[in-house]
Amino acid sequence: MSNATITKNEAGASSLRQARLPRWTLPALVVVSAAAGAGIGTAAGLGNTLQWGLIAAVLFILGSYGLAAAVEGGRQAKDRLATSLVWVCFVLAVVPLVSLIWETVERGKTVLDGYFLNHSMEGVQTILPGGGAYHAIIGTLEQVGIATLIAAPIGLLTAIYLVEYGRGRLAKAVTFFVDVMTGIPSIVAGLFILSFWIIILGFSYSGFAGAMALAILMMPVVVRSTEEMLKLVPNELREASLALGVPKWRTILKVVLPTAVGGITTGVMLAVARIAGESAPIVLLVFGAAGINNNPFDGAQSSLPYYIYEQWQLGNEASFNRAWAAALVLIAFVMILNLVARGIARWKAPKTGR
Amino acid sequence: MAKRIDVSGLTAYYGSHKAIEDISMTVEPRSVTAFIGPSGCGKSTFLRTLNRMHEVTPGGRVEGKVMLDDENLYGSGVDPVSVRRTVGMVFQRPNPFPTMSIFENVAAGLKLNGSYKKSELADIVERSLKGANLWNEVKDRLNKPGAGLSGGQQQRLCIARAIAVEPDVLLMDEPCSALDPISTLAIEDLIGDLKERFTIVIVTHNMQQAARVSDRTAFFNLAGVGQPGKLIEIDETERIFSNPSVQATEDYISGRFG
């Protein structure tokens, strides 16, 4: 019986065995299509390497489909086609990101040093090298910090209301307005605070005014992400706690929130990262300043996105360098926040190890 | 400890849907009462009305009386939170708190209620884990996460957690349906021990289990899909399984339907 089966397999008559492309085919195809893309690009006189890359990508997709169709048959060819499409899309998504970081690091590192990080632009001639972004870093940290202090608790409590208590019309209305708020352009949030805080109430420009506009932008993001995280907490855990005779508020505080805290932290950090790069409300509300102002509640401040914009506007070599350096600082700031969030998420994640 | 439950005319709804209708029964203290019946007949719903967990479900409401000794659980001014401290519950799927260690899981009820003395906590945890026949398996790793235990151990951890708050009644909603036969045996033995101290009500789909662990058995049934579930009869377990007074019970037990 088993002998017969083996003989059949060796004869290649088994329906379970089929011709397969050798493993090196795909890497080889990548090299070949890259070379062909470059060749065609040069021949056609295309100066842009991006165009070469796109030609190579198309060749790779067609090539993998064609090869698989010829050797392995129709179903595998479709599988290869889908796989190469996914890979090409992945590369297309990563290329801009990597080139952006590459470009920023390359240009930003020329003036980024200790001096840049702890000096302001006070008294610096804008066409000359020198000066720094200390005042902008302070401004960003304070404005984003205050915005987070306002938006995170409100957003968190709103999400708790929506998931744990909200029923009926009020909850639906809150959800609707949170969705609407998610779509508010940052300039509109800035104009709102401008008309309300500065024009009607008569306060002057300050970091705090900017922080309020940032808080408006941040709140819906915090609500949305926290809501999703709280919904992921299994209902069984709430019931287990309630069945022990634990009141609902303590159940939420001691069981639901700790279970979701990793995801909630990540959500808040991502919201912080989103508002750290906003410049429109800062232009309207914080006004921008060349000197150091440590007090966010009084007088104009700067911030990193505003600083980049301002330096770029000046339009000379030295200010371009400063703009790139500040962009690098901003990216690093956001990246550090993300790493911290991931660290917290991993540290607080529910433990399953033995 | 161990109180008598006296239910009369209990009807429970999910929104406008009537899940169980007009149930009356008495559950004796220091005994095991098993609920059997086909799926959807309202056994679990009825069980959840006994510690006011039914109303946690959106739209859940209850009519009728549940007397715990001489107190009506649904009387005016009764706090569901204190009802649940008196009537504990173990669920179908083991659900230890994933953020807590084994020790913290058992201590959770006391800690979250804030009603404990620090010096007593370790004693209570040890006693509860011994009570749930889990102590020997976990005494060396009390600080490890509770979610790292096997399914059967997790379920016994949940039982330890439930008995740590010293309830009078322990409700178990198919506590063994997610467990293998050996863990099931461990839990059945445990139920036998626990009935010395608690009034136990257990929902089960396993009729052999009902026959093995319970003193009295209640059979629930429903007339059809969408109809409310009803209590068909409740009697000594031996009688239910040998000579039930209602034909439907005999049909169900002998496997003629359901």
TrEMBL record, chain A:
Part of the binding-protein-dependent transport system for phosphate; probably responsible for the translocation of the substrate across the membrane. Keywords: Cell membrane, Membrane, Phosphate transport, Transmembrane, Transmembrane helix, Transport. Pfam families: BPD_transp_1. NCBIfam families: 3a0107s02c (TIGR00974). It comes from Streptomyces coffeae. The chain crosses the membrane at residues 24-46, 52-71, 83-102, 144-163, 175-199, 205-223, 255-276, 323-345. It is found in: Cell membrane. It is a multi-pass membrane protein. Its main location: membrane. CDD domains: TM_PBP2. Residues 137-341 form the ABC transmembrane type-1 domain. Belongs to the binding-protein-dependent transport system permease family. CysTW subfamily. Coiled coil: none annotated. The keyword Transmembrane applies. This is Phosphate transport system permease protein PstA.
UniProtKB/TrEMBL annotation, chain B:
Signal peptide: none annotated. It holds the Pfam family ABC_tran. SUPFAM superfamilies: P-loop containing nucleoside triphosphate hydrolases. The keyword Thylakoid does not apply. PROSITE patterns: ABC_TRANSPORTER_1, ABC_TRANSPORTER_2. GO terms for molecular function: ATP binding. CDD domains: ABC_PstB_phosphate_transporter. The keyword Nucleotide-binding applies. Keywords: ATP-binding, Nucleotide-binding, Translocase, Transport. Residues 5-247 form the ABC transporter domain. This is Phosphate ABC transporter ATP-binding protein. It comes from Streptomyces coffeae. The lineage of its organism: Bacteria, Bacillati, Actinomycetota, Actinomycetes, Kitasatosporales.
